[in-house]
């Protein structure tokens, strides 16, 4: 055992380190907040910034460097990997076939992976240029909205019973969440452009408001389950509940720069509110997928009989509506950002 450890230690020291060292020196060291444009600055984070204008290669390689976003990026990538492995495992074990009943689950999975990867990409690559910073932020807003709708779709099909589907809320639920997802994407992009870093807190609240409303509506089916079935209804409800708690906790860290506001500069590389927020959100996604697996097995047998195959397929196709609307909004915002950057340079 000990000899094995020594073997790996020497392998690392004599083979990997020189290799890493030959690649990493090409990376510029991290800089302080005053060395990056205000657009990139975060309150109470004083160091650990990568300089703006890094070549693509350096952006990607900075995954191996310690800077203020290393932890965030890795937690997102690991969560995506865990989600993928868990989904593949479930698909094999339960013999997930390609049929209309499993389509919403697959769409949910795709939207969750897209959200995590776009967020990771935005974290790694945004220091390429200011324009890229905007573009990746908008892309991430689109993926977040698509994920919101993916959740709503899966919840409204798997996590409720037929009575809810026929109720008033059940009828307007999906169109309403589609509009709210689009609104939160549009507001995120818009506030990013108009309220620059000076108003970081305002911006966060402006973003949080539509996201919060969307979340409350999206959790509608869960509230009904909670009032009707209580806790005896298997582990799914517990998982949904846990997911809500994680979401609320993460929202707290999204809004308030805790703990770094108490000790500016102390949490630059690890432990600041961004790190905690992303770690909690990633965990939230994993828990939600788990809950949906349970719900899927519970609802699957009756789904086609109650809804009809055609209706189910049409519902799944609606997945693409918010996606198209949000992408178009983001593209429009991108040209606006470009125009503004050009105006500033002149
Ligand atoms: C980390 O640094 C980047 C610039 O490299 C900056 O855009 C970002 O806002 C910083 N994030 C945190 C959490 O400090």
From TrEMBL:
Residues 1-22 form the signal peptide. It holds the Pfam family HlyIII. One of its GO terms (cellular component) is plasma membrane. It comes from the Eukaryota. One of its GO terms (molecular function) is steroid binding. The keyword Amino-acid biosynthesis does not apply. The chain crosses the membrane at residues 71-93, 105-125, 137-160, 172-193, 205-223, 235-256, 312-333. It is found in: Membrane. Keywords: Membrane, Metal-binding, Signal, Transmembrane, Transmembrane helix, Zinc. It is a multi-pass membrane protein. Zn(2+) binds at residues 274, 278. InterPro entries: AdipoR/HlyIII-related (IPR004254). Belongs to the ADIPOR family. This is Membrane progestin receptor beta-like. The lineage of its organism: Eukaryota, Metazoa, Chordata, Craniata, Vertebrata. The gene is LOC114480265.
């Amino acid at each position: 055992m000990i000899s094995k450890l020594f073997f790996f230690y020497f392998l690392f020291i004599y083979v990997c380190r020189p290799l890493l060292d030959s690649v990493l020196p090409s990376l510029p060291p991290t800089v302080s907040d005053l060395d990056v444009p205000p657009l990139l600055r975060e309150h109470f984070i004083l160091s650990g910034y990568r300089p703006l204008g890094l070549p693509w290669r350096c952006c990607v390689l900075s995954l191996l460097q310690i800077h203020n976003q290393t932890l965030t990026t890795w937690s997102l990538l690991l969560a995506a990997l865990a989600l993928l492995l868990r989904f593949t495992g479930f698909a094999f074990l339960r013999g997930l076939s390609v049929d209309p009943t499993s389509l919403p689950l697959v769409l949910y999975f795709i939207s969750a992976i897209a959200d995590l990867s776009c967020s990771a990409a935005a974290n790694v690559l945004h220091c390429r240029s200011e324009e890229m910073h905007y573009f990746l932020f908008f892309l991430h807003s689109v993926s977040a909205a698509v994920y919101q709708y993916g959740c709503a779709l899966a919840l409204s099909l798997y996590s409720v019973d037929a009575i809810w589907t026929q109720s008033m809320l059940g009828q307007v639920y999906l169109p309403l969440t589609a509009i709210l997802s689009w609104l939160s994407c549009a507001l995120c992009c818009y506030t990013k452009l108009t309220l620059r870093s000076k108003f970081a807190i305002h911006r966060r609240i402006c973003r949080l408001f539509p996201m919060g409303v969307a979340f409350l509506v999206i959790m509608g089916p869960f509230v009904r389950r909670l009032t009707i079935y209580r806790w005896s209804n298997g582990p799914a409800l517990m998982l949904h509940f846990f997911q809500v708690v994680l979401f609320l906790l993460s929202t707290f860290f999204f809004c308030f720069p805790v703990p770094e506001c108490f000790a500016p500069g102390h949490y630059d590389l690890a432990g600041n509110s961004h790190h905690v927020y992303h770690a909690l959100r990633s965990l939230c996604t994993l828990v939600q997928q788990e809950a949906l697996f349970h719900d899927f097995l519970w609802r699957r047998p009756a789904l086609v009989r109650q809804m009809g195959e055609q209706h189910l397929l049409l519902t799944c196709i609606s997945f693409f509506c918010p996606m198209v609307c949000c992408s178009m909004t983001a593209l429009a915002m991108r040209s606006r950002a470009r125009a503004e950057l050009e105006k500033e340079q002149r």
